[in-house]
Each structure stands twice: as C-alpha cells, then as structure tokens.
Amino acid sequence: MLTWPLTAFEEYMLCDDRPEYPMTGIFRVRLSGIPDRNAFQSAVNAVVSRHCLMRCTVVPRCPGRPPVWVDNPGWHAPIAWNTPCNPFGFPEMSFMDLTRFPGVRFWVIEHHHSSDIIIQAHHACTDAIGMGRVLEELLILYAHHRSDKNCVPEISEIDPDRFALRGSHGSPPEITPGLIDHLLGTWQFFTRRPVPVMSRRTIPNQSKAVKMFPSLLTMTMDDISTQNYFLSAKKLGVTVNELLLRDCFLAVAALKKESRKYSEKDWIRFTVPINLRTRADEGLSMANCVSMVFSEQRMADIRNPAGLLKTIHDDIVIKSHSMLKTTFLDAVDLVRYVPKLLAWITRAIPCFSTGVFSNTGIVLNSRLLPRKNGNFLAADVVVQGIDAFPPIRPGTQFAVCVNTYNDRLSVMLNTDPRYFSAGLSKHFLDRMRSQIQTSILTGASR
After folding, report:
1. Across-strand partners of 18?
2. Among residues 259, 218, 234, which one has the least CA distance to residue 433?
3. Closest Cα partner for 113 from 27, 220, 217, 30?
4. How far is C-alpha 92 from the chain's CA centre?
5. Which pLDDT tens digit goes with each residue over 108-132?
6. pLDDT tier at 175, thresholds 50, 70, 90
7. What angle do CA 32, 35, 39 make, to 5 degrees?
8. Which of 126, 238, 379, 411 is the 20 to 30 A CA-CA neighbour of 249?
C-alpha cells in the first residue's frame, strides 16, 4: 500500500475544509455534441489510473505528524449522467470527506445538441492548473477510445519521482534585508482586517446555502474585445493579470458604495494564487504547485483608477518575484507541526480576504488535439469553453477566476448564496463586464 505525507498546502486545504464551505474547486467543460458513455467512462478510468491523487484517501496520524495519502489503485470514479441541476446549471454538490472517499466527482449533463462535463475536485488534491492537465488528458483519451487508436498521439509520461517532491519551494528564508519585507507582509496580514463585500450586518440566508450550491456564473468576451483588453494592458504598462485585478477592486468598491455600508478606512483584500511550476514540473501529475499572495487596498485609495493600477503593479511585481511569494507556504509549514494550531487558525480569523482572484492563463494549450474553428476537437465533441471556479470560505464571499481559451477571455464568478441572490451575483458580474469595457476604452485612448 503506497502512502505519501501531505504537503503543507495540502494539509492547510484539509484543515480549512468544512461541510458548510467545502474546500473544492468546480470545473466545467462546455461541449458541442454529446460524449459516448462507454468511451467517456474508459477515458475517466484511464486518467484516474495515471494521477494518484484522484484516487487517494487521507489517513490522520498522531498530533504533530502530518496525515498521509493512501493509494486506492483499484478505485474507479463514478459518473453521474443528467442529474437535475440548480438554476445556475450545476448539479447539487456536497462536502467531500477525504478520510472516506477520494476527492474527485464527475457529472455529464446532456442538452439538445451539447453537453457539459462537470468535475468537483478537492483543493487538497489539485490546483486549477493541475486539473487543466487532467482535462486535456481526458479529452485526448476520449478521442483515443472513439477513433482509430493509431491516429491519436500518446500522452506525455508522468514522472513518479517528481510527485514525491511536490510542495517543495526552495530553501527556508535566510537572514537578508529582504527578510524585513517578508516579515512585514506577515505582520500586515494579521493587523489589517479586510471586510467582506456584504456587510456582516447582512443576515445570511442559510436556507439557500445547500439548494443553491454551487452558485456559479461565466462571462466570455469575444476575440476582438479580448485582443483589445490585452492591448490596453500593454499600453498601460502592466500585465493583463494586474489590469484584471485592478478591475476587480473597482467592481468590489462599486458594490460596497451601492450598499452604503462601508468606511473609507475599510481594507479590501484579494487572495491571489501564484503558480510555482517550473520546467522541472512538466512531468508532475495532478497536484498543488501553488502559493498565495495577498493584494490589499483601502476604500479611500480605490478612487483613482490610474493610481490604483500603479500600486497593484508595484505590489505584485515585488511579491511574485521575491521570497514574498512563498510567505504563505513558509507560515503554514511553520505552524503545522504545533498540534491543532493550523486547524485553530482556519477557524479563528473571521475573514482572511474579501475575495479570491485567480488567473489560470491559457487553458488547453495543446498540440495533441486537432482544432475546428479554433476550438479543440476530441473525436465527436468540440470544446466550446472551460470554466474553473475556486472555492470560497467563511467571510470570503466570492471568488473570481479568469482564463483564456481560443483567444477569448472568460471571467467566472463563484458567490456565497447566503449573501448573494442570483440577481446580485449577475449584477456583480455585470459590474466586472462594465469595468473591463472601461479599461478597453482607456487603453484605446492612449
């Protein structure tokens, strides 16, 4: 029986998991056409056999020692077909107990001439980029089972030795001048208390929590608008990621002002995942290879969009190109060996961040699948888009994820149904859409 200790990040995600707020990511592949059931089941079985964390369960150990993954090599992931969906178009999902079952579930929802592949995956098992590799392999293997096997290229090999090194991110911090910034960032994290989008005085609607989970919306821009937005970022001297984060701040500030329940001294904080993968990780199986940085601004400082963008640019450059990008992992690694401290921290702080902002970049950037009108073709189905929704936690009432597929930018929104009605969620996404259009016009005027 193969076992592996959980990494610091994996253990954090396990501790931050709870039935009311499952620490699970949700992924949807939007297809033209309907996949063949037998071929799809065979493809899922093949993918699960390649990626061990898709079939592992967790076994706790004595205090002070991290729990371990235990492999279940004979496990096959069940697939639910045409399960009834909520008004957002998703089947009812629930908490995933990793001590009892592996952390991945599959659904296929058929429409008239299209379908959705939906996956719920525990964040202790993978990040969004790791799941992106799984989705690419799933489509390739599906095509392999539907077509002449000699016509489908083989999938790249997975390096089992690299899996054992997942979670490593270099040596511990040395005593250098940069360590001052490292410690200052940690101090600011605990002294600056961010506020949620909806005031704590807002009474949460607990009755909607289960029925409306997950509450997910997607906005996809056309290729011309996407190109213009990327060009605006270039003209403004920032990355697309920084411009999108600025627009998220402005959208949140607009919502706060509409509610009239805010102070100019309020801190708005975004959790921003940072990809730590290098070329050496090309053979890494599905896993987490990510850290987190935090971008925060006071409401008073969000008034000036140009000044806000410069502040975000300077902040992200420092945090993503220095030891600060691993501050979060270093802190988790330090406290995890104090019995029950990590679990206590995940429950003691009412609001880590106002929201989550994740940019997974170009999805399905594959040379192994043919294209049809720019979209990837897998035998008898065509991929129209891929949506990814990060989890939310108490106090963090929404998460935004952004990706690019077939030269089209998509913005995906996950909201807490206790605080966000369907109408308010749509209004929030419309705010993002409006702000993105404003940024395009600003760039065009340069």
Report:
1. 21
2. 218
3. 30
4. 19
5. 999 999 999 999 999 999 999 999 9
6. very low
7. 150
8. 126
CB 52 within 8 A of CB 164: no
Kindly report the pTM of this predicted structure.
Answer: 0.92
Q: Quote the CA–CA distance of 36 and 19 in Å, as a whole number.
A: 34
Residues 217/423, Cβ–Cβ less than 8 Å: no
- Helices (H), ranges, 51-127: none
- C-alpha 290/C-alpha 275 separation (Å) is 5
Distance between CA 80 and CA 88 in Å, rounded? 18
**Which SS3 state, helix, strand or coil, does residue 439 take?**
helix
Q: Give the DSSP letter of residue 194.
A: B
- Mean pLDDT of all residues in 164-181: 61
Which DSSP string do the residues of 361-406 spell out, in sequence order? EES---SSS-EETTEEEETTEEEEEEEEE---BTTB-EEEEEEEET
Of 136, 71, 81, 79, the residue nearest 102 (C-alpha): 71
**Beta-strand pair 355-362/398-405:** parallel
Q: Are strands 68-70 and 79-81 parallel, antiparallel or unpaired?
A: unpaired
Q: Is 123 helix (H, G, I), strand (E, B) or coil?
A: coil
Q: Is the pLDDT of residue 291 over 70?
A: yes
Scored b (16 or more CB within 10 A) or e, 369-394 reads: beeeeebbbbbbbbbbbbbbbbbbbb
What domains are defined for the chain? 3-164 (3.30.559.10), 178-357+395-444 (3.30.559.30)
Give the pair of three-digit tokens for residue 389: 């929704």
Q: Which residues pair with 28 in a beta bridge?
A: 118, 387
CA 171 to chain centroid, in Å, comes to 26
Q: How far apart are CA 400 and CA 390, in angstroms?
A: 7
CA-nearest of 399, 392, 406 to 359 is: 399
pLDDT range class, residue 322, cuts 50, 70, 90: low
Buried b (16+ CB within 10 A) or exposed e, 8-31: bbbbbbbbbbeeebbbbbbbbbbb
Question: Phi and psi for 289 in degrees, rounded to 5?
Answer: -135, 65
Contacts of 176 (CB under 8 A, 6+ apart): none
Nearest to 292 by CA among 13, 5, 27: 13
pLDDT at 348: 79
**Amino acid identity at 250:** L
Task: Please enumerate in sequence order all residues whose Cβ is within 8 A of that of 429, keeping only pairs 6 or more positions apart, or say none.
Answer: 217, 219, 411, 413
Token reading at 43: 């493809």
